[in-house]
Amino acid sequence: DVQLLESGGGLLQPGGSLRLSCVASGFTFNTYAMSWVRQAPGKGLDWVSTISGSGGYNTYYADSVKGRFTISRDDSENTLYLQVSRLRAEDTAIYYCAKGGGSGFDFWGQGALVSVSS
Amino acid sequence: ILMTQSPATLSVFPGERATLSCRASHSLGSNLAWYQQTPGQAPRLLIYAASTRATGIPARFSGSGSGTEFILTISNLQSEDFVVYYCQQYDKWPLSFGGGTKVEIK
Predict the structure, then answer these.
(1) Is A50 an 8 Å CB contact of chain B?
(2) Do A108 and B54 touch (CB under 8 A)?
(3) Tens of pLDDT along chain A (118 residues)?
(4) Residue B101: strand pairing partners
(5) Contact, A77 vs A9, CB < 8 A?
(6) Among candidates A50, A62, A111 on the partner chain, residue whose Cβ is nearest the Cβ of B42
(7) Residue B90 touches chain A, beta carbons under 8 Å
(8) B49 and chain A in contact, CB less than 8 A
């Protein structure tokens, strides 16, 4: 079975940084694009970033996070990362790791909560 | 690409049919997916390529449309279907979601 397990969330002050991780299992990780999607409390889904698979490592970002967030992957560890910096209050959300990116997201993790508050 | 879902809330009797709409600001071809989200849980993929059901999705869920107009139809609504649904385009970067439609019991 496909499993995606996020970690690394927490409470931070504006301007802070952290790194989210997502450990994947149950599929051939290196061949798939992987993504981060977030959801602010009580709001809808908001795509954040995607990194391609199969060694291409092309990256794509939402305008709202470009220059502040960095997506990466370690195919040897089946792990996806999201380095977030210069955090703002509006970045407060559950951050979901999702399998896929160019053709829909077919599996999702349970999410990691990032709260930004002074 | 701006994705607009309507209505924001849809009231339907159990056992009846729900019709959810999603409109794109630019043509997507068939590059559209639908997701279901139960409160407190991660979204679940229902439909991709506008009309293809994902693995394990019941046949009462069907998708149609192309270009800029898409429909998700849920037939014979069951209790677990009264949740929120999102459409998402993957035709062009940046990817984008609609604002969601909440299906509630009438």
Answers:
(1) yes
(2) no
(3) 999 999 999 999 999 999 999 999 999 999 999 999 999 999 999 999 999 998 789 999 999 999 999 999 999 999 999 999 999 999 999 999 999 988 899 999 999 999 999 9
(4) B85
(5) no
(6) A111
(7) yes
(8) yes
